[in-house]
Give the backbone structure.
Amino acid sequence: MSVATHEAPAEPAAKPGNTKRGLERRPGLGRWLPYLLLAPAVLLELLIHIIPMLVGIWMSFVKLTKFYIANWSAAPWAGLGNYKVAVDFDNAIGEGLLKSFGVTVAFSLITVALSWVLGMAAAVALQPPFRGRSFVRTLFLVPYALPAYAGILTWNFMLQRDTGIVNHILVDNLGLSTDRPFWLIGSNALISLITVATWKLWTFAFLTLMAGLQSIPRDLYEAASVDGAGNLRQWRNITLPSLRPVNLVLVLVLFLWTFSDFNTPYVLFGTAQPPAGDLITFHIYNASFLTWNFGTGAAMSVLLLIFLMIVTGIYLLVTGRRSRRA
Amino acid sequence: MRETKGFKIYRAAVLAVLGLFVLIPLYVMATSSLKPLRDVQGPFTWWPSNLTLTPFVDMWKTVPLGRYFVNSTIVSVVATVFSVAIAILAAFAVSRFRFRGRTVFSTTVLSTQMFPGVLFLLPLFLIFVNINNSTGLQLVGTRIGLIITYLTFSLPFSIWMLAGYFDSIPRELDEAAMVDGCGPMGALGRVVLPAARPGVIAVAIYSFMTAWGEVLFASVMTTEANRTLSVGLRQYSTQTNIYWNQIMAAALIVSVPVVIGFLLAQRHFVAGVTSGAVK
């Protein structure tokens, strides 16, 4: 833990009777105590996460339509039927899922890239101390601290065609267009989604990268300066390689978050979600709760999970191999 | 990094662009909340035609905002208290004991944090409905269902962060307390917890923020009786007139407590959130 490690003294010199395993030496209760301490956490995780996930996998194999929601044990077995419906790209349900998947891929890749670039730009700009630095840092944290829906609602207002500030600036102030574009319906919806999601997410990239920058020893930069390396080269040769472990985790986390983003489309579009902004979590949600066909929804969720696991696996494999070679 | 002229220009440009990007929405939120209704129904204006506080008064009447506020507060506070207490116990076990299943527990708990919520939304909803049918315990449409759900959302991260904090507290301190006659729990209460106070505060704020801002489960598990702010604010747009000034006022009011809490504990929090990646 970077926050506290500096407070921790070095390993204690071997004092008599002061072993690391002191707590466990107590007879009786001591052996069971850790399990007792974990029990509430384990029970709750089981109830809210693990069991529902297993149930979700089971649900994806039964015909769980609205007739069986209150009496799920009577739902007939569907085999792979739900999956066949979900990936049959010739019918409406499968086609919708495929389109939503495509939109989500584009949305996540662009949002993660933008968030990373902005976070990096700001972290580097704030690297050397200057007056007002901590104020700027605090200001940049506000989008992260704000409840997600409050920020997104504000963007919803800003993106209104006739009363929003975005069109006011673009059309009235800058004169970039003669007619006022729609931002929340039609094909611009994806741009809106990316903007709003980036507004919230880049701050997290900034936070993480800034903490990462602090751990780079300053003499590395001084030595490079003596050798005549300019700022850009220092960034490429020192900053980027030093941040590599941070970046690996950061990009993965950002990707997993954006790929399953629900808040942004839900609060931004409400029930009138445009096809261009149909992110996958929102799509599954609608597919399940509009038709109350939980079986197909569960199959889609499982497919999403499998996809994310494969991507994560490949990502870890590729980056891990490259690390070993380096 | 040398502060060359080029770097200073770069810094000024980055601060200007990102400063505007961050500030404009906050500015819109703040000024629009002080506008009369006609200002937000016509083309956008940078400044209210006349400053008014009526949106802050009317917002409580347009939708039952007070009830949403009470619901959100109760749900978030109770979920936070339980989440922090449970996380402290679990983190103490992970940090101070070597026991069978320790690694399995840590990795399983952390990986649940990474799964998309929609994955357990449907089954959890169904489980709650069926628990209700078989035992009469109502979990959908009640605060208790939300509390149980939310407290698990912050649990993995809280356990992980607190365990890190506890690790940094020298074990001799616990042992000194135990020599003085405390049991392990006494050592936790009298030595470890006081020393880990910043971590506990940061985790509490994180838990509160998680519960206060949650949308997905709230949209399914709340009915009018237990509706929280995250979905309650959407009720404004179901009115025949969309009162954007009131919506902005409400968004401002619901943000203030969390933003202040977050900024106060910023230092501990930021260090905690980012330490995993840095380490």
